[in-house]
Design brief:
21% of the residues lie in helices and 31% in strands. The protein is an alpha+beta fold and 258 residues long. The strands form 3 sheets. A 5-stranded antiparallel β-sheet has the order 2-4-9-6-7. Strands 1-11-5-8 form a 4-stranded antiparallel β-sheet, with helices on one face. α1 packs across α4. The protein is globular and about 55 Å long.
Length: 258
């Protein structure tokens, strides 16, 4: 069988794409994959040796006159299923993350409410921040306020990257989606299918009392949107194109043999 020169193959490939009504460079529809939280807990300055990993909620809160304690939260995701899903959709190495959202749910979402468990502060509007935490080794059934420092910057090579400052309005909405910045380290965690920890703490001068549910009850989700990397043909289209080229080549050979 006669071999087409490379330049002719390119011409025929372009022809087949055009005949199929497809552009030479394909653009896929963005896909969002959601992953439920793997582990979550909070720590409290008011109970510095207590662990709260078994509770149904975690909290980000500042001290008040009645409840003189700071509450900070840790949530961890295993992103291996996200990586696998995008590899299936686009092909390994052919996709780029375009958006990351953290969805949190709360049974107590109105300012002034006092959750039934006395370990939680009263619900209040206010600012908070979410950070990427490099240390994923914390245990939801072991970490306390006194041991939190072991996973935060200042110990070893632990690192915090800001994912954004947010405002919790405490107006009664049971769910909220927080759009996280595309921090390079968080993106690397997701694209490599690694563990990813998000640390929540009040912003300076905040009045926040933000309670949200754990994996034990209407848990948090990490929602990652990705799209085909620019100039990369959509997975699966190669088979169609090469099959078309092979058919075209066979047809040409058949004509020449007549």
């Amino acid at each position: 069988m006669k071999q087409f020169p490379a330049n002719n193959q390119t011409k025929h490939l372009t022809f087949l794409l055009a005949a199929a009504g497809l552009p030479a460079t394909l653009t896929a529809t963005p896909v969002t994959i959601s992953q439920v939280v793997q582990a979550d807990t909070f720590v409290s300055s008011g109970q510095p040796t207590s662990n709260f990993g078994a509770l149904g909620a975690v909290e980000i809160a500042v001290p008040t006159g009645a409840q003189n304690r700071t509450q900070e939260s840790l949530i961890r995701f295993n992103t291996s299923a996200i990586e696998s899903g995008f590899n299936t959709d686009y092909g390994a190495g052919n996709w780029t993350i375009t958006g990351i959202t953290l969805t949190l749910y709360s049974n107590f979402a109105t300012a002034g409410q006092q959750p039934g468990n006395s370990s939680f502060n009263q619900i209040a509007a206010g600012g908070f921040e979410l950070d990427w935490l490099s240390n994923d080794s914390w245990s939801e059934t072991g970490i306390t306020w006194n041991t939190l420092a072991s996973v935060l910057p200042g110990t070893g090579n632990n690192q915090l990257d800001s994912l954004g400052d947010f405002y919790w309005p405490a107006t009664g909405s049971s769910s909220a989606g927080w759009n996280l910045s595309l921090d390079a380290n968080l993106v690397v965690d997701i694209t490599s299918g690694s563990l990813a920890t998000i640390f929540g703490q009040p912003t300076a001068g905040s009045t926040v009392g933000y309670l949200f549910n754990t994996l034990n009850n209407n848990p948090a989700y990490l929602n990652v949107t990705a799209d085909l990397t620019s100039d990369v043909p959509e997975p699966g289209i190669f088979g169609l194109l090469f099959a078309g080229l092979a058919g075209l080549a066979a047809a040409r050979c058949g004509k020449r043999s007549l």
